[in-house]
C-alpha cells in the first residue's frame, strides 16, 4: 500500500471530490464544493515528491520532470479511480486528484431528465456535454455511455486523457484508449477510430481545431460521437465550435455541423442544502430541424428562444432548471443567483442582494 493511499481512503470516507497536496501547506480536500484542510502536518517538497513518485509510472515521472506538468490515472482496487495532475509551483511540487467512482451511476440515479438517456439510442450524430471544470460533465457522459452499453449491441471507443470511468463490456464491446499511453494525441486516436469499426466514439476533450474537425467528420459519416467543451450555454457551444475554424471555412462548417449535431447539454453543479451531496442543473438543446436551420443560417442568437419553445422535445433553459431545483428546496437562492445566466430573475429571491460591480 502506497503512503498516499491513506489520503484517498480519508477522501472517500469524507465524500470529497478532490484532494490537493501542495509543498509548504497541509493537505486539503474539496467537500461538497468547498475546500477544507486536513488535520495533518505541512508537506515539505521532498516528502511530497517521494509520496507522489511512489504511485506515478516511470514514463510519467520523466514527462513531469521535463515539462513541469503531467496527467495520468491511478486506481485503488475496491475503492476508486483517480485522475491525477502533478504540477510545479513556486514552493515545489503539487498535485490534485479527482475521485472517479468505480460504480457508474445511471441517468436515473443522477436524476437526469428522461431525454438524456434517450441520447444513447441515437444512430449517429454529435452530442456535446459542456460546462466549467468540475461541473459533472464526465459523470453525465458516463451515465449515457452506460445506457448505450446496456441497451445496444455495438462497438464503443473512448478516447480520454486520462481514462476516467471504466465501462465493462455488457451489450457492447467497449475499448478505452488513453492519450499518452495507448495513442499519442486525441487527433491520432480519432483518425484511427474511423478504421476500427466503431458505432459510438467518446472524445474526452475537444480541445483543438483538428480534433473538433475530425469529431464533426465522424458524426457526419454515420457514427455517434460524444464530446466535451468548456462553454456555459448551448448557443455559446455552437458558436465556440464554429469560431475555432478560420473565417474562410466557417460557412462550410456551419453546414456540416448543422447536419451532424444532435444535442448540446450545458450543465452546472450545485451543493445541496437539503442533504449531503450535489446536483446538476442542465440546459438542453435538441437539434430539431428548426435548430439546425438556425445554425446553418448563422442565427445562433435565436437558439435561446428555440429552447424556450421546445419543451415538448425535452429542451430546457439553464435558468429554468436552476429555478426548478430552487423550488424543490435542493439549492440555496444565493447559489442559484451566482450561477444563473439571467441574474435579475433570481435577485428578488435573495434576502441580501449583493452589489454586482460587473453591472456598473
How would you characterize this protein structure?
With 360 residues, this protein is an alpha/beta fold. It folds into two domains: 5-101, Beta-Lactamase (2-Layer Sandwich); 107-345, P-loop containing nucleotide triphosphate hydrolases (Rossmann fold), CATH 3.40.50.300. It has 14 helices and 13 strands. The strands form two sheets. Strands 9-8-10-11-7-12-13 form a seven-stranded mixed beta sheet, sandwiched between helices. A hairpin with a 2-residue loop joins strand 5 (80-89) and strand 6. Helix 7 (186-193) packs parallel to helix 8 (209-220), helix 8 packs across helix 10 (250-260) and helix 10 (250-260) packs antiparallel against helix 11 (289-296). The N and C termini lie far apart (55 Å). The mean pLDDT is 93.
Please give a quick description of this structure.
With 360 residues, the chain is α/β, with parallel strands linked by helices. The protein has helices at residues 5-14, 45-53, 58-67, 107-110, 114-118, 137-151, 186-193, 209-220, 234-243, 250-260, 289-296, 303-308, 318-328, 333-339; strands at residues 16-22, 28-31, 34-37, 69-76, 80-89, 92-101, 125-130, 155-160, 173-178, 200-203, 224-229, 261-271, 278-286.
Amino acid at each position: 500500500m502506497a503512503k498516499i493511499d491513506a489520503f484517498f481512503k480519508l477522501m472517500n470516507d469524507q465524500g470529497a471530490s478532490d484532494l490537493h497536496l501542495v509543498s509548504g501547506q497541509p493537505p486539503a480536500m474539496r467537500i461538497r464544493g468547498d475546500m477544507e484542510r486536513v488535520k495533518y502536518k505541512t508537506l515539505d517538497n521532498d516528502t511530497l515528491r517521494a509520496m507522489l513518485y511512489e504511485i506515478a509510472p516511470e514514463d510519467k515521472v520523466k514527462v513531469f520532470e521535463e515539462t513541469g506538468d503531467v496527467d495520468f490515472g491511478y486506481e485503488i482496487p475496491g475503492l476508486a479511480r483517480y485522475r491525477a495532475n502533478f504540477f510545479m509551483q513556486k514552493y515545489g511540487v503539487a498535485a490534485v486528484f479527482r475521485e472517479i467512482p468505480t460504480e457508474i451511476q445511471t441517468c436515473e440515479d443522477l436524476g437526469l431528465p428522461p431525454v438524456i438517456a434517450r441520447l444513447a439510442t441515437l444512430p449517429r450524430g454529435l452530442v456535446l456535454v459542456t460546462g466549467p471544470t468540475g461541473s459533472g460533465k464526465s459523470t453525465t457522459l458516463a451515465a449515457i455511455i452506460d445506457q448505450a452499453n446496456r441497451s445496444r449491441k455495438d462497438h464503443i471507443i473512448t478516447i480520454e486523457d486520462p481514462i476516467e470511468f471504466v465501462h465493462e463490456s455488457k451489450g457492447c464491446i467497449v475499448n478505452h484508449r488513453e492519450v499518452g499511453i495507448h495513442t499519442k494525441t486525441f487527433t491520432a486516436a480519432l483518425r484511427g477510430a474511423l478504421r476500427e469499426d466503431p458505432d459510438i466514439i467518446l472524445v474526452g476533450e475537444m480541445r483543438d481545431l483538428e480534433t473538433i474537425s475530425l469529431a464533426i467528420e465522424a458524426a457526419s459519416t454515420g457514427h455517434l460521437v460524444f464530446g466535451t467543451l468548456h462553454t456555459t450555454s448551448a448557443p455559446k457551444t455552437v458558436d465556440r465550435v464554429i469560431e475555432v475554424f478560420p473565417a474562410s471555412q466557417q460557412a462550410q462548417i456551419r453546414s456540416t455541423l448543422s447536419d451532424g449535431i444532435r444535442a448540446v447539454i450545458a450543465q452546472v453543479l450545485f451543493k445541496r442544502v437539503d442533504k449531503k451531496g450535489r446536483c446538476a442543473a442542465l440546459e438542453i438543446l435538441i437539434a430539431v430541424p428548426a435548430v439546425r436551420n438556425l445554425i446553418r443560417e448563422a442565427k445562433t442568437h435565436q437558439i435561446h428562444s428555440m429552447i424556450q419553445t421546445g419543451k415538448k422535445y425535452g429542451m430546457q433553459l439553464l435558468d429554468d432548471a436552476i429555478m426548478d431545483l430552487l423550488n424543490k428546496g435542493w439549492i440555496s437562492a444565493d447559489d442559484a443567483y451566482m450561477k444563473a445566466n439571467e441574474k435579475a430573475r433570481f435577485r428578488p429571491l435573495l434576502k441580501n442582494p449583493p452589489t454586482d460591480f460587473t453591472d456598473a
